[in-house]
Amino acid sequence: MLRNRVRIRAVYAAILAVSFAPQSEALTIDLQYPSSPLFSTLHDPVAKAAIDAAAFDLSTAVTTSLSAVTTDAYSGSSGGAEITFGFEFKYRDPLSNTDGHIIVPNATISSNVVNLFVGARNLTGNTLGVGSPGLVQLDYSQFSGGGTNPNGLPGAVSIAESKAQAAYKRGSGPVIGTAMGSATLGNVSADIDVDYGLAYGSISFDWDSNNNGVKDTDTQLSTYWHFDHTTAVAAGKNDLYSVALHEMLHTLGIGSSPTWDSKVSGTSWTGSQVQALTGSGANLIVPPTMMDPIGSHAASGLMSRRISDGAQQEVVIDPNITTGQRKSLTELDLAFLRDIGHTTVIPSFPSLPGDFNGDGDVDAGDLTTWRNYYAVNANGDADGDGDTDGRDFLHWQRNYTGTLSIAAVPEPNSLVLLLTLATALISLRRSGGRTISSRFGDHG
């Protein structure tokens, strides 16, 4: 779920040439629109193009290989007992204001495909969109079995479970949930538990900006949403492309799966892919709340490099979006995906010694990065020796591209001297500008 935020701030981003490691076949996000129009006849062509673009960009970056599911019935026999049980898909109805669900009785799907159903409806409060993966559940109409020995039932169920789980986990990706049930033969019962992965999902966008329970007019929608992903986001508007990208990440298991939950510890993240970029998992996840006991988003304001150009921006999967701005995928968004079982492209950015935050210049922001990681990890490493130390500071000093007049500084003899200089420079940098921020919606 994504809520909106108003923030006025300056962003300075240098365009970098970004290369990617060789990739396997991209994931296919198959978008389906069950209602017409989605928003309105006037806005739909541009709105759907933005949603399609978000799906294309995400599916290009995610290379998870998902096996086909070719049957929805699985059998097992053991010790004189046999059983067959079947499955069906279930996903949240994107058009329902009461969170109704749609059942897909034939629970099969092609390889490397995730089906997403997209709609618009009244979303309360400041919520711009909601997205979730679909479920797999037992279809009791397909149950059959019997035999001469009820004591063989647990073994028969175990065999059928193994077959079904191998199919519905689809070979890779996160575990989305567990289909549960039970079977009885004579006086013997056996539980059925089948873990499953990605297959279906849905996304709903808000079309009621003033929360009066009535769909907005075309004029209200055009004031509320920025539909065109090919133009800069207008001031005060919410970028549909950015919201679509955020909700699609939820449909792929980000903040919405047991695999995600297993990596969250309070506000810390335990996944190795993210920690390799940040140096620590601390304070990377939103604090738990009554409505969200296991944080389902990255921490608000968490920054990372865009994979498109290396510039710094908030990660897509933090809980808010700034009006008038657009988000695209970042290094950390992809690292979170890898930590929950996906495979992704690996962005590679040109290196400028001293550009520790990857924004294409060497300035006080990089000094802050160097200071934060001094003697902690290699995130402030400019000389390639695998750590962050005083020698890296000298590279920063020599390559400084900012506007401050900096006198030559001799080889530092202590961390105290370095941190004193760092503090002075940061104070100068901050005195030159102001950030004004007002929130009108916190995610829960």
Briefly, what is this?
By secondary structure, this protein is of the alpha+beta class. The protein is 25% helix and 25% strand.
Provide an overview of this structure.
- The protein has 444 residues and is an alpha+beta fold.
- The protein has a domain at 364-431.
- The protein has 10 helices and 21 strands.
- It has helices at 44-61, 153-168, 218-224, 240-251, 258-263, 272-278, 331-339, 364-373, 390-398, 415-431, and strands at 2-8, 19-20, 28-32, 73-78, 81-92, 101-104, 113-121, 127-133, 135-147, 177-185, 188-196, 200-206, 225-226, 238-239, 264-265, 268-269, 303-305, 312-314, 320-322, 347-348, 436-438.
- Strands 1, 3, 7, 8, 12, 19 and 21 form a 7-stranded mixed sheet that branches. Strands 4, 5, 6 and 9 form a 4-stranded antiparallel sheet that branches. Strands 2-20 form a two-stranded antiparallel ribbon.
- α1 crosses α4 and α6 runs antiparallel to α7 (331-339).
- The longest helix has 18 residues, at 44-61.
- 43% of the residues are buried.
